[in-house]
Amino acid sequence: MRSRRSCLAVPGSNPRFLDKAQGLPADEVFLDLEDSVAPQAKEQARKNIVEALRTGDWAGKIRVVRVNDLSTAWTYRDVIEVVEGAGDKLDCLMLPKVEDAAQVAWLDTLLTQIEKTIGLPLGGIGIEAQIENARGLVNVDAIAAASGRLETLVFGPADFMASINMRTLVVGQQPPGYTEGDAYHYVLMRILMAARTYDLQAIDGPYLQIKDLDGFTKVARRSAALGFDGKWVLHPTQIEAANEVYSPAQEDYDHAELILDAYEHATTVDKRGAVMLGDEMIDEASRKMALVVAAKGRAAGLSRTKSLDTPA
Ligand code: GLV
Ligand code: MG
């Protein structure tokens, strides 16, 4: 599992940002050709992105390019120019505003053709699918199953709110008048179920009030609590917060590793399926929960500070 706690948006039309992003501690960068780039700047942005991927130092980061959505005229040239120009320096393409499985299948086929033509490993470039309108959400299960290249489903709150006529202009915050519960709970859960069913990561979208770090952290904690793997970040100050929110706490990580050790010992040495760890009873289901936290902690680079022999 590769960590995607923080996924940094970088407009492809801005060489200064493309340069600066390389030094920031985001798990993923996505170089954008879509909504952060003006129509007149799209062609130059493709060139900037190819150049930045070819010559930049992106070590340790997942490198993604977001192409334009399939209702535009730009998508096929985005894919061809970026992959022919820098396919060997690219981990995934992100397809925005995905509405059905056929759109993902289209991208899969085009990628296969380019990989064959220029001699890249077949299937090497992954796909991230943004779910950001009503049709995409209704079809999310089929979208998640559409290609072996898929790595993540990404919630796009701004476009989504527009698509369903939600009565607010503030992304990430509850719509005024909705006083009970969380207006995004259904959407997040729906995306999460599809992602887990098909073994994909689930990524939360942007929080646009970049000065409001508390607001960002609060919204991030909500999706992290449900099980989301990470969130978009638009500004360096949001990166650290996302890295922290989507990593397990050290204490939880240590606890998870202890459960795995204790359970392993119980089942192999003592030949028992349920045992006590301190005051807690653990069994096979505890092991499964612990595996998730341990995997996220390891991917986030945590190291354990306790072992079964450590005095409590
Ligand atoms: C992201 O693309 C969004 O629409 O929120
Ligand atoms: Mg969008």
TrEMBL record:
Residues 5-236 form the HpcH/HpaI aldolase/citrate lyase domain. GO terms for molecular function: lyase activity. The keyword Lyase applies. Its cofactor is Mg(2+). InterPro entries: Aldolase/citrate-lyase_domain, Citrate_lyase_beta/mcl1/mcl2, Pyrv/PenolPyrv_kinase-like_dom, Pyrv_kinase-like_dom_sf. Keywords: Lyase, Magnesium, Metal-binding. It holds the Pfam family HpcH_HpaI. The keyword Metal-binding applies. This is Aldolase/citrate lyase family protein. The lineage of its organism: Bacteria, Bacillati, Actinomycetota, Actinomycetes, Streptosporangiales.
